[in-house]
Design a protein that fits this description.
This protein is of the alpha+beta class and 413 residues long. It has four domains: 87 residues, no CATH class; 104 residues; 117 residues, Nucleotidyltransferase, domain 5; 55 residues, no CATH class. Helices cover 35% and strands 20% of the residues. It contains eight helices and 18 strands. The strands form five sheets. Strands 10-9-8-11-12 form a five-stranded mixed beta sheet. Strand 14 and strand 15 form a beta hairpin. Helix 1 crosses helix 2 and helix 6 packs parallel to helix 7. The longest helix has 34 residues. The protein is globular and about 80 Å long. The structure holds zinc ion. Zinc ion binds next to loops.
Length: 413
């Protein structure tokens, strides 16, 4: 039943707190981290010695650490340590399984051999004690109380830290839009994560039953941010500025300048806004391209280099989760070269933003055509099946050479 809910989190800045409070927090964070490191190294030595780790400590074999921290906060610290160790062990096991599978291969290719040795190296590196790179405390309701004030002027979010082993104190924050959105639609969880700069709050959401039937293909592009198979183009920011214009402006700014980073932020906000504009409440699933290697070489077009494809993909995925919409990730191979009407694939079908099929004459915007291809349930072929001339027909049953046209579906033109 666990997969019926999911968790979203947001961060609230601690910058408004006084120097005294920040010092107090630092003292607490340092001590917590010191204990955390000790617990981790204890658990780790147990794992290395007998390959077993007790998920929770028994009171008797709990190492005694001299600290001012209270038993309550140490308990959170112990849980934190065991979750870090556990996830590291799980990671090692996953890599180990892949490695074992590769070793069973009778005639491994050079690529597989290279991957094998890099995996072995990675596993060896992971057998060192996990290192804490960022100081953070995970606290639950025993040590922290979240107060949501409603009729105060400025600080409307207060976390009271107590039972610490030192004087209790309050941390003041300001709620923001994202926080309020999560609060209005989800259930706030009692566990929080405290760092030097911010507190992270978590919210739990129920997955809604989805009775929609609509599936659309969504093409993620540079000219148009999103193009859907129901022929909608979503490509402007909330202020109406086109995505492509922002991309052109980025290229003109000096890399590393303040104006440059402002533009990048504007680009990301624009993309997120476009994703939100999809008609989420009517969808059952979306089909999107999963581009694994975004090649960035010298030849790459200047604008393409600043394409935030990953962010758009992640945003689509997270909105899908929120609306319980299924995500179908599709291989991007040939989706922009295929005619969505007759299935003919040819590089020359596409002329930058225009698509004109050389077989049936179907003409459309190239991104729209790609989104139609994504929506269709096409056969998943292997690279080796593609004829060397790279001109072929491709549909739900497979791919066919051009010489076998009699088998090809009739053109609909
Ligand atoms: Zn065609």
């Amino acid at each position: 039943m666990k997969n019926k809910t999911f968790v979203r989190s947001t961060k609230c800045s601690l910058k408004f707190n006084s120097f005294v409070k920040k010092t107090q927090l630092n003292l607490l964070l340092n001590e917590y981290t010191r204990c955390l490191e000790e617990y981790i190294s204890f658990l780790w030595s147990q794992y290395i010695d007998n390959q077993k780790v007790k998920i929770r400590f028994l009171k008797a074999d709990q190492p005694q650490i001299e600290t001012f921290l209270s038993a309550r906060i140490l308990n959170s610290c112990i849980n934190h340590a065991s979750s870090i160790v556990r996830s590291r062990i799980e990671q090692i096991q996953t890599y180990q399984n892949t490695l074992n599978n590769l070793s069973e291969c009778e005639k491994p290719t050079q690529k597989q051999l290279d991957y094998k040795s890099s995996l072995a190296e990675r596993i060896a590196g992971m057998k060192e004690v996990p290192v804490i790179t960022k100081k953070e405390m995970r606290l639950d309701s025993k040590n922290s109380k979240i107060c949501l004030a409603t009729n105060v002027s400025f600080f409307d979010l207060v976390v009271e830290l107590c039972s610490l082993g030192m004087h209790k104190f309050n941390l003041l924050m300001k709620k923001h839009k994202h926080f309020n959105n999560l609060l209005s639609s989800g259930r706030m969880m009692s566990g929080i994560v405290i760092c030097e700069e911010y507190i992270q709050f978590n919210f739990e959401f129920e997955k809604k039953e989805n009775t929609n039937k609509k599936t659309i293909g969504v093409d993620i592009g540079i000219n148009s941010c999103l193009t859907t198979s129901d022929n909608k183009v979503l490509s402007s920011s909330d202020k109406g500025k086109p995505y492509h214009t922002i991309m052109e402006e980025i290229v003109r700014k000096r890399k590393g300048s303040k104006a440059f980073s402002r533009k990048l932020l504007e680009r990301d906000n624009c993309a997120k806004y476009c994703v939100k504009q999809l008609d989420w409440n009517s969808l059952s699933s979306i089909c999107i391209e999963d581009i694994k290697n975004l090649r960035n070489c010298k030849k790459t077009n200047k604008i393409r280099r600043h394409w935030n494809y990953r962010l758009i993909l992640d945003s689509l995925k997270s909105n899908s989760e929120l609306h319980n919409v299924c995500v179908n990730l599709k291989n991007p191979m040939y989706t922009s070269q295929r005619c969505s009407s007759c299935g003919y694939v040819n590089k020359k079908n596409r002329d930058s933003i225009k698509f004109i099929c050389l077989n049936c004459g179907f003409a459309a915007n190239a991104d729209y055509n790609a989104s139609l291809n994504l929506q269709q349930n096409l056969h998943n072929f292997k690279r080796s099946e593609v004829p060397s001339e790279r001109k072929f027909f491709w549909d739900c049953n497979g791919i066919r050479r051009c010489g076998e046209e009699y088998e090809a579906p009739l053109s609909q033109n």
